[in-house]
Protein backbone atom coordinates (compact mmCIF):
# COMPACT_ATOMS: atom_id res chain seq x y z
CA UNK A 1 0.00 0.00 0.00
CA UNK A 2 1.19 3.54 -0.68
CA UNK A 3 2.72 5.11 2.39
CA UNK A 4 2.49 8.71 3.44
CA UNK A 5 4.98 10.22 5.84
CA UNK A 6 5.16 13.08 8.26
CA UNK A 7 8.05 15.42 7.53
CA UNK A 8 10.25 13.82 10.17
CA UNK A 9 9.36 10.25 9.11
CA UNK A 10 10.25 11.10 5.52
CA UNK A 11 13.58 12.68 6.54
CA UNK A 12 14.43 9.53 8.52
CA UNK A 13 13.38 7.23 5.66
CA UNK A 14 15.55 9.23 3.25
CA UNK A 15 18.54 9.12 5.59
CA UNK A 16 18.22 5.33 6.01
CA UNK A 17 17.44 4.75 2.32
CA UNK A 18 14.16 3.01 3.13
CA UNK A 19 11.84 4.95 0.84
CA UNK A 20 10.21 2.46 -1.49
CA UNK A 21 8.09 3.37 -4.49
CA UNK A 22 5.27 0.97 -5.35
CA UNK A 23 4.81 -0.18 -8.93
CA UNK A 24 1.83 1.71 -10.32
CA UNK A 25 0.39 1.44 -13.81
CA UNK A 26 -2.08 3.82 -15.44
CA UNK A 27 -4.49 2.36 -17.93
CA UNK A 28 -8.00 1.20 -18.68
CA UNK A 29 -9.79 -1.56 -16.81
CA UNK A 30 -12.73 -3.82 -17.55
CA UNK A 31 -14.31 -6.96 -16.13
CA UNK A 32 -12.61 -10.25 -16.94
CA UNK A 33 -14.21 -13.59 -17.74
CA UNK A 34 -12.55 -15.05 -14.66
CA UNK A 35 -14.25 -14.13 -11.37
CA UNK A 36 -10.93 -13.49 -9.59
CA UNK A 37 -9.30 -11.22 -12.20
CA UNK A 38 -9.65 -7.97 -14.13
CA UNK A 39 -8.59 -6.98 -17.64
CA UNK A 40 -6.11 -4.10 -17.87
CA UNK A 41 -4.70 -2.18 -20.86
CA UNK A 42 -1.84 0.29 -20.39
CA UNK A 43 -2.67 3.84 -21.45
CA UNK A 44 -5.86 4.65 -23.30
CA UNK A 45 -5.68 2.41 -26.35
CA UNK A 46 -8.49 -0.16 -26.27
CA UNK A 47 -6.13 -3.04 -27.12
CA UNK A 48 -3.54 -5.39 -25.67
CA UNK A 49 -5.66 -6.33 -22.64
CA UNK A 50 -3.86 -8.28 -19.92
CA UNK A 51 -5.62 -10.43 -17.33
CA UNK A 52 -4.43 -9.53 -13.83
CA UNK A 53 -5.44 -11.80 -10.93
CA UNK A 54 -7.06 -9.81 -8.12
CA UNK A 55 -4.62 -11.18 -5.48
CA UNK A 56 -1.77 -9.39 -7.34
CA UNK A 57 -3.49 -6.00 -7.00
CA UNK A 58 -2.74 -3.91 -3.92
CA UNK A 59 -5.20 -1.13 -4.77
CA UNK A 60 -6.86 0.71 -7.63
CA UNK A 61 -7.61 4.41 -7.91
CA UNK A 62 -10.28 5.28 -10.50
CA UNK A 63 -9.33 8.51 -12.29
CA UNK A 64 -12.07 9.03 -14.89
CA UNK A 65 -13.87 7.32 -17.77
CA UNK A 66 -12.20 7.45 -21.19
CA UNK A 67 -13.92 6.90 -24.54
CA UNK A 68 -13.17 3.76 -26.51
CA UNK A 69 -15.00 3.60 -29.87
CA UNK A 70 -18.71 3.47 -28.96
CA UNK A 71 -18.19 2.82 -25.23
CA UNK A 72 -15.96 3.90 -22.33
CA UNK A 73 -13.68 2.30 -19.76
CA UNK A 74 -12.49 3.50 -16.37
CA UNK A 75 -8.99 4.97 -16.48
CA UNK A 76 -7.31 3.78 -13.30
CA UNK A 77 -4.05 3.95 -11.43
CA UNK A 78 -3.38 0.33 -10.45
CA UNK A 79 -0.80 -0.55 -7.81
CA UNK A 80 0.53 -4.10 -7.87
CA UNK A 81 1.06 -5.96 -4.61
CA UNK A 82 4.69 -6.71 -3.83
CA UNK A 83 4.65 -10.48 -3.47
CA UNK A 84 8.28 -10.54 -2.32
CA UNK A 85 9.08 -13.26 -4.84
CA UNK A 86 12.08 -13.19 -7.21
CA UNK A 87 9.61 -13.24 -10.12
CA UNK A 88 7.94 -10.06 -8.88
CA UNK A 89 11.32 -8.37 -8.46
CA UNK A 90 12.28 -9.27 -12.04
CA UNK A 91 8.89 -8.12 -13.36
CA UNK A 92 9.06 -4.77 -11.59
CA UNK A 93 12.66 -4.22 -12.70
CA UNK A 94 11.70 -4.90 -16.32
CA UNK A 95 8.62 -2.66 -16.16
CA UNK A 96 10.56 0.20 -14.58
CA UNK A 97 13.37 -0.15 -17.17
CA UNK A 98 10.80 -0.15 -19.97
CA UNK A 99 9.14 2.91 -18.48
CA UNK A 100 12.49 4.73 -18.32
CA UNK A 101 13.33 3.86 -21.93
CA UNK A 102 9.94 5.11 -23.16
CA UNK A 103 9.58 7.82 -20.57
CA UNK A 104 6.76 10.27 -21.17
CA UNK A 105 9.22 12.91 -19.99
CA UNK A 106 11.73 11.99 -22.68
CA UNK A 107 11.54 14.16 -25.75
CA UNK A 108 11.83 13.42 -29.43
CA UNK A 109 15.35 13.98 -30.76
CA UNK A 110 16.49 17.56 -31.30
CA UNK A 111 18.17 18.75 -34.45
CA UNK A 112 21.61 20.24 -34.05
CA UNK A 113 21.38 23.99 -33.46
CA UNK A 114 17.69 23.91 -32.49
CA UNK A 115 16.57 24.57 -28.93
CA UNK A 116 13.10 23.06 -29.44
CA UNK A 117 12.28 19.48 -30.41
CA UNK A 118 11.33 18.96 -34.02
CA UNK A 119 9.11 16.43 -35.72
CA UNK A 120 11.13 13.49 -36.89
CA UNK A 121 10.74 10.89 -39.55
CA UNK A 122 11.19 7.31 -38.40
CA UNK A 123 14.65 5.88 -38.81
CA UNK A 124 14.88 2.91 -41.15
CA UNK A 125 13.68 -0.04 -39.14
CA UNK A 126 15.17 -3.47 -38.95
CA UNK A 127 13.10 -6.20 -40.58
CA UNK A 128 11.04 -8.25 -38.13
CA UNK A 129 10.81 -12.03 -38.12
CA UNK A 130 7.77 -11.82 -40.38
CA UNK A 131 9.73 -9.69 -42.85
CA UNK A 132 7.73 -6.51 -42.17
CA UNK A 133 9.23 -3.22 -41.08
CA UNK A 134 8.86 -2.17 -37.43
CA UNK A 135 7.39 1.30 -36.83
CA UNK A 136 9.39 3.94 -34.98
CA UNK A 137 6.31 4.69 -32.88
CA UNK A 138 2.72 3.49 -32.93
CA UNK A 139 -0.36 5.61 -33.57
CA UNK A 140 -1.61 6.76 -30.18
CA UNK A 141 1.82 6.80 -28.47
CA UNK A 142 2.42 10.03 -26.60
CA UNK A 143 5.18 11.55 -24.52
CA UNK A 144 5.77 14.84 -22.77
CA UNK A 145 9.15 16.52 -23.08
CA UNK A 146 11.05 18.43 -20.39
CA UNK A 147 9.51 21.70 -21.63
CA UNK A 148 5.95 20.46 -21.07
CA UNK A 149 5.26 19.91 -24.78
CA UNK A 150 3.27 16.80 -25.63
CA UNK A 151 4.26 14.76 -28.68
CA UNK A 152 1.84 12.32 -30.34
CA UNK A 153 2.63 9.60 -32.84
CA UNK A 154 0.78 9.35 -36.13
CA UNK A 155 1.84 7.15 -39.05
CA UNK A 156 5.24 6.46 -37.46
CA UNK A 157 6.15 10.11 -36.91
CA UNK A 158 6.14 12.34 -33.80
CA UNK A 159 4.14 15.59 -33.88
CA UNK A 160 3.84 18.44 -31.39
CA UNK A 161 0.22 18.23 -30.17
CA UNK A 162 0.34 21.02 -27.59
CA UNK A 163 1.11 21.66 -23.94
CA UNK A 164 0.90 18.73 -21.52
CA UNK A 165 -2.47 19.24 -19.84
CA UNK A 166 -5.06 16.94 -18.33
CA UNK A 167 -7.55 15.73 -20.93
CA UNK A 168 -5.33 16.43 -23.97
CA UNK A 169 -6.39 14.43 -27.04
CA UNK A 170 -5.32 14.35 -30.67
CA UNK A 171 -6.49 12.83 -33.92
CA UNK A 172 -4.61 10.52 -36.27
CA UNK A 173 -6.05 9.00 -39.43
CA UNK A 174 -9.62 9.50 -38.23
CA UNK A 175 -9.00 8.03 -34.74
CA UNK A 176 -9.08 10.17 -31.58
CA UNK A 177 -6.43 9.32 -28.95
CA UNK A 178 -6.19 10.40 -25.33
CA UNK A 179 -2.67 11.67 -24.68
CA UNK A 180 -2.76 10.13 -21.19
CA UNK A 181 1.04 10.05 -20.74
CA UNK A 182 0.96 13.85 -21.12
CA UNK A 183 -1.69 14.29 -18.44
CA UNK A 184 -0.22 15.59 -15.19
CA UNK A 185 -1.78 12.87 -13.00
CA UNK A 186 -0.35 12.71 -9.49
UniProtKB/TrEMBL annotation:
Chain residue ranges for the region called Disordered: 100-128
Name listed for the protein in its UniProt record: Uncharacterized protein
Amino acid sequence: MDRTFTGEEFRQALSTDTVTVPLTLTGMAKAADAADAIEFALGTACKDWTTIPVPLIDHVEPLQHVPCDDHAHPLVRLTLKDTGTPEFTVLTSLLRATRQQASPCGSPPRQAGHSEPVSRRPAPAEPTAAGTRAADCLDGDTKCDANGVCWGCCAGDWFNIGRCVFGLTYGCNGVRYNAVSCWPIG
